[in-house]
Amino acid sequence: MYQAFLIKYAEIGIKGKNRYKFENALCEQIRYRINKIEGQFEVVRKQGRIFVEAKGNFDFDDVIEAMSRVFGISSISPVEVIEKKDWESLTKAVGDFIERQYSERNFSFKVKSRRSDKHYPYTSPEICVEMGSYLLNRFPGLSVNVHDPEVYIWVEVREKAYVYSKVYQGACGMPLGTNGKAMLLLSGGIDSPVAGYMIAKRGVYIDAVYFHAPPYTSERAKQKVVDLAKLVSGYAGKIRLHVVNFTDIQMYIYEQCPHEELTIIMRRYMMRIAETLAKESGCLGLITGESIGQVASQTMQSLAATNDVCELPVYRPLIGFDKQDIVNIAEKIHTYETSIQPFEDCCTIFVAKHPVTKPELRVIRRSEEKLAEKIDQMVQEALDTVEVIEISE
Amino acid sequence: MEAYLDNAATTRAFPEVKEVMVKLLEEEFGNPSSRHTKGIAAEQYVKEARNVIAGSLKCQPKEIVFSSGGTESNNIALLGSALANRRAGKHIVTTRIEHPSIHEPLLFLEEMGYQITYLPVDKNGQVSVSAVEDALRDDTILVSVMYVNNEVGSVQPIEEIGQMLQKKKPGILFHVDAIQAYGKYKIIPKKCNIDLMSVSAHKIHGPKGVGFLYIKDGIKIRPILFGGGQQNGMRSGTENVPGIAGMAAAVEIMYQGQAAKREKMYQLKHTFMQKLQEIHGATIHAVDGIPIEETAPHIVSVGFDGVKSEVMLHALAQEGVYVSSGSACSSNHPALSGTLQAIGVNPKLLDATLRFSFSVETTEEEIAYAIRAIEKVLPVLRKFIRH
Predict the structure, then answer these.
(1) Is B387 on the interface with A (CB under 8 A)?
(2) For residue A217, which of A102, A221, B142, B304 is within the disulfide window of CB 3.0 to 4.6 Å?
(3) Across the A/B interface, how many CB contacts are shorter than 8 Å?
(4) What is the DSSP string of B357-386?
(5) Does B334 touch chain A (CB under 8 A)?
(6) pLDDT tens digits, B64-89
(7) Using CA atoms, how far apart are residues B188 and B55, in angstroms rounded to an integer?
(8) Is residue B333 over pLDDT 50?
């Protein structure tokens, strides 16, 4: 029965002169999502509002689900469009709306109204009062509460009239494409997909890089990462996933360097490769799922040691999060189930029994000198053989 | 080159299997329960398949019940006989090396108040007849023993157990999980005193999703699926006609010159084992001091000292050699193999063991290629032992 959805947006509202850029980006994202579901829709902007208008049949839940994945939207309200807006038709239509929407009409309410059609015979406050009294007469179970009502009934009079009362929570954040692009280091774990989601939420497009170490990591582990990227792209849009064959580098480090430093040195090379790929594809930063102290390679000293090799900023949105906080988000965005499938990734397979937890940069750099003979060539080879997978949901 | 040596997980379907299945999907697609001619035509195929399979077991056609495969057959056999005999007793005897599709239903029955005795096996994965005999009680209703173990290829003394049961306690039902044995051995249930026997089609070059349970005439079993009453109410649900006909086509081929086919697989196994013995740090499980003929012709379980099986498996796959770690059906669970533990494999080999399994299609070239691949990847992987 709904013919339109009113989209209210989050922080864009407070932007200054370049607000139109944000609104355009938001409309584009809404079109991208809405075109993926069945039905015909039009996205229109009117007087600082965005409407998604349905032409013909559609599935209500599909629309709400699609819209709840668009960053920049604070709420979605299904709206009924009332073509005949003379007072008698309007009051009846609003009454019918209440009847359809609420099977038990025993709640407190308040009418809120907006009138942009200044020729309409009632002013906004008058619409509120008169509509309220009409509804009270028609439904004796209702009561008015202007301070803390259970239901707000919105009536807007424009070239047509609109009524809505239900509000669905949006994803908030900023529309994708308003903040450039960044390269996500995606492992098969719980944290990195969440990190990607959080940065994407700030309007940033995501590319991703995965380090594959066959035969030490299986095809299934790689498939798991592809699956995770797909889930993240359900929010973050298209993702180019770069699969780097890391086996030779990993084994070379293993042969040449002290084993307790293996993870740190390995991660430094991952960062170096990720940064090269990031620069090649126009990314403005790197994203990792690191959180202080979670594992040996994420102590303050270890983070400093991996950070040392990067010129681009490294964004670590989970840095102050507890594991449970991260798990909660992973569950919300449905990546958790996939993340906990038990396949080894290249970080876990060679782990030393007692890795260093307080690496000294000086020592690590000296260890890396032992790689001088072959490492540049190996890194180049890894970059030359990158497999790029275009991910979209 | 490729060498598919994971035939205990599943096999490639014979071309004849595909042919009859396509015909049944495209042309004779009727429901055997329909009264019209299309239904009767489909029913003919099911009947004919039943005759073929009964012929291979020298049993009556009505003793064959079609199912969705090995797991379902095992479930019907265990749950169905436990339910039908719960007044006679609640004790069941089995071994410690059964497949999960035996083990799990038994755990369920334990929850329901049944008592299960799990018999140990020796280092070659064999249970002794006297151990079975000693475990029998007055309230024992069922003995369930697998014919060929899926992980290490040990063969149980099925005929001897059957004869012992007939002599000592003829009332006790005898179930045999023959999923890895049927097609490789000539099995005559009557001769072995088998009351129930499970078989799966895709282990013998038939299609996946179909199998059968032999139920000796006169044995009381409660069905576990209820519905339209097909197959005399034993297993409701429209018969998987293409699958059943495909399975029968595979059975016919498997049992043509069956002894010679088995002999050929033993030769391959012999060659493979000889080559393996030349490889440093390779230990073949469950073949200690017994002739090769007392083990299954198609399964070789090998531990490679110092190499994680998972990693070795992927390295071999890169070379085009396909094998399993532990048993393929449960390999997705990182848990260590119950069978390997039960036969007392050195703990350091528990997660360093691979299973190579052959079929009637396996060639000497494949075996030689697999050996070369092992010799190639092993030294590389051994350099990177976890410390």
Answers:
(1) yes
(2) A221
(3) 31
(4) E--TT--HHHHHHHHHHHHHHHHHHHTT--
(5) yes
(6) 999 999 999 999 999 999 999 999 99
(7) 10
(8) no
CB contact under 8 A, A215 and B318: yes
Which contacts qualify for B369-374: CB closer than 8 Å, 24 or more apart?
A: B369/B1, B369/B3, B369/B320, B369/B321, B370/B3, B370/B5, B370/B272, B370/B316, B370/B321, B371/B272, B371/B275, B371/B276, B373/B3, B373/B316, B373/B319, B373/B320, B373/B321, B374/B276, B374/B279, B374/B304, B374/B316, B374/B321
Give the DSSP letter string of B48-92: HHHHHHHHHHTS-GGGEEEESSHHHHHHHHHHHHHHHTTTT--EE
Report the alpha-carbon distance of residue B356 to residue B300 in Å, rounded.
5
User: Residues B155, B329, B349, B367: which is the catalytic one?
Assistant: B329
How many alpha carbons lie under 13 Å from residue B199 in its C-beta half-sphere? 30
The gap from C-alpha A51 to its chain's centroid, in whole angstroms, comes to 21
* Chain A residues within an 8 Å CB radius of B311: 215-216, 349
Percentage of residues in chain A with pLDDT exceeding 70?
A: 96
Are the beta carbons of A353 and B311 separated by less than 8 Å?
A: no
**For B3-11+258-382, which CATH superfamily applies?**
Aspartate Aminotransferase, domain 1 (3.90.1150.10)
> How far apart are the C-alpha atoms of B310 and A275, rounded to whole Å?
31
B59 assigned to active site? no
- CATH code at B15-254: 3.40.640.10
Q: Which candidate, B3, B173, B5, B203, places its Cα nearest to that of B94?
A: B173
| Interface contact B378, partner A, CB < 8 A | no
**Domains plus CATH for chain A?**
4-169 (3.30.2130.30), 181-391 (3.40.50.620)
For testing the chain A interface, which of B308, B311, B321 should be mutated: the one with the most A CBs within 10 Å?
A: B311
**Is B310 within 8 Å of chain A by CB?**
yes
3-state secondary structure of B145: strand
What is the chain A residue with the closest CA to B307? A216
SS3 A5: strand
Chain A residue with the nearest C-alpha to that of B385: A350
Taking the C-alpha atoms of residue B312 and residue B12, their distance in angstroms, rounded to an integer, is 23
What is d(CA A253, CA A269) in angstroms, rounded to the nearest whole number? Answer: 10
Give the A-side interface with B, CB within 8 Å: 214-219, 251, 254-255, 259, 342, 344, 349-350, 352-353
CB-CB neighbors (< 8 A) of B312 in chain A: 215
- B317 part of contact set with chain A, CB < 8 Å: yes
Residues A222 and A355 sit within 8 Å (Cβ to Cβ): no
Angular region, B298: left φ>0, alpha ψ -120 to 50, beta rest: alpha
DSSP A175: -
- Indicate whether A123 pLDDT > 80: yes
Tokens of B197: 């026997």
Smallest CA-to-CA distance from A37 within A14, A60, A16, A7 is with A60
pLDDT in tens, A356-387: 888 899 999 999 999 999 999 999 999 999 99
Residue of A56 and B190 predicted with greater confidence? B190
Kindly state the tokens that stand for A196: 């990607």
Q: What is the DSSP letter of A320?
A: T
Task: Give me the residue spans of the domains in chain B.
Answer: 3-11+258-382, 15-254
Instruction: Output the CA torsion B18→B23→B24→B28 (10° steps).
Output: -170
